[in-house]
Amino acid sequence: MEKRLTVFHLDDGRELRGGQRQLLYLVKELNALGHSNTVVCREGSPLHKAAQRKNFATLTLPYFFEWDPVSAVLLRRALKSLPAAGALPPLLHSHTSHAAAVSWLASAGLDCVRVAHRRVDFIPGSFTARFKYSKAHIVIAISEAVREMLLKAEVPDEKIAVVNSTIDLDDTPWRPGEFPAYRAAARKELAAELGLAQEAFWAGSLIALVPHKDPENMVRAAALVLKEEPRVIYLIAGEGPLAQRTEHLARMLKIQDRFRLIGYRPDPYKVLAALDMFVLSSVEEGMGSVLVEAMNASLPIVATTAGGIGEVIEDGANGLTVPPGDHAALARAQRRVINEPELSARLAQEAHRRREDFSSPRMAALTLKCYETAIENFKRNRHPLE
Questions:
Q1: Nearest CA to 185 among 250, 269, 121?
Q2: 123 against 65, higher pLDDT
Q3: What is the mean pLDDT of residues 105-124?
Q4: How many CB atoms lie within 10 A of CB 183?
Q5: Is the pLDDT of residue 327 over 90?
Q6: In the prediction, which pLDDT does 224 show?
Q7: What is the structure's pLDDT at 18?
Q8: Which residues, including other chains, have CB under 8 Å from residue 40's CB and lie 6 or more apart?
Q9: According to the model, what pLDDT value does residue 381 have?
Q10: Do domains 6-166+359-380 and 170-357 have the same CATH topology?
Q11: Which CATH superfamily groups domain 6-166+359-380?
């Protein structure tokens, strides 16, 4: 857009996961294009700290609960303090469902453009859909699968746009031609830290240990793989409410020595670069932005077909896919990658090539088009509560 936009990016997350990283990528690109961006997050949260490290403008809200009037009043105060002369209306871009509720409350009666992001592929409740998505000026879905869920919730088709998640290639910690050296160093450091055999085959994942990621399915598949391939070690980086259940299941299946939960890692590329294979066992998935990071690290990928994963991974081309919840199929696909080096190399090469289809400049350009549409929708219907 030619005119300078003022965008408030709302996110109430307590962690720095895929959605928060997407927000940071977008702010970086929009800042570079000359637009004004403010990250509206919890004080002291990982997102707040990351935004400060990048010198992004921030505004902190308590986000006490979904329809939090205190956060809404504080945000409303910031909106009313903006200069109005000749400027485009400010945009409230909600990157989480709860933040969309605060956005709706804060903008009531004000000239503001509301943009809602939807990253998960399950149907929102009717009240949520009506007031947070249907009443937004545009809704950005991260995949066609998410768009279909919004349509089922009766969000108007004309208000939905699809913009895939992405990676910031500038954040890649190795330069062209330096990946083998980076991988060797990462593998050596992790082997020393975790007491691992460097000559083993390392499979793994970066996931939140939550129900829709289905880590227990990954454990069951790993147990089948390890019956025939005892040289494999699984490294699962992440945390969440299913951590204890996942560890317990690994003990019950007697693979706890080969299936390691290594907790949250602030350096995801170090883990990715050290792996020989990436596995994603999700039963629901908006798109799976971590898959693009795995592609950037030239990894052969085995994933389910949940949600929007099929928009990232083409079975047999840049990865292997299996039905969600089918641990036997997930194990068979992994054994193919382990035992067929030519297949593994071909999948990894094609994955690395396709990573540029998900670059952050492209995502920012598509998001700006969404903003343009949202502003036009706002102009046609200026009453913010309609």
A1: 269
A2: 65
A3: 92
A4: 19
A5: yes
A6: 98
A7: 85
A8: 8, 9, 10, 11, 58, 59, 60, 61, 75, 99
A9: 72
A10: yes
A11: Glycogen Phosphorylase B; (3.40.50.2000)
pLDDT for the residue numbered 85: 55
- On whether the CB atoms of residues 301 and 318 are closer than 8 A, the answer is yes
CB 115, CB 91: distance < 8 Å: yes
Say if residues 203 and 277 touch (Cβ distance below 8 Å): yes
Total residue count of the chain as it appears in this document = 386
Residues ≥6 apart with Cβ < 8 Å to 88:
3, 4, 5, 6, 375
Instruction: Tell me the percentage of the chain whose pLDDT exceeds 70.
Output: 98
Mean pLDDT, the chain, rounded, equals 94
Tokens 């700006």 belong to which residue?
368
- Cα 228 to Cα 217: distance, rounded to the nearest angstrom: 18
**Rounded Cα–Cα distance for residues 373 and 378 (Å):** 9
Terminus-to-terminus CA distance in the chain, angstroms? 26
DSSP 286: S
Q: What class, spelled out in words, does domain 170-357 have in CATH? A: alpha beta
For 86-114, the pLDDT digits (tens) are 678 999 999 999 999 999 999 999 999 99
Q: How many CB atoms lie within 10 A of CB 128?
A: 17
- 31 CA to centre of own chain: 21
Radius of gyration of the chain (CA): 22
In the chain, the largest separation of any two C-alpha atoms, in whole Å, equals 70
| Domain residue spans of the chain | 6-166+359-380, 170-357
pLDDT of residue 241: 96
- Can you read off the two tokens belonging to residue 96? 């989480």
Q: What is the mean pLDDT of residues 60-75?
A: 97
pTM, full prediction: 0.83
The pLDDT assigned to 86 comes to 62
Residue 386 has pLDDT above 50, yes or no: no
Under 8 Å between Cβ of 11 and 97? no
Angle at CA 103, nearest 5°, toward 100 and 105?
115
Contacts of 62 (CB under 8 A, 6+ apart): 42, 43, 68, 70, 71, 74
The first and second tokens of residue 285, run together, are 């998935």
- Please answer whether residues 35 and 5 qualify as being in contact, where contact means their C-beta atoms are separated by less than 8 angstroms: yes
Q: What share of the chain is helix, strand, coil (3-state, %, to 5)?
A: 50, 15, 35
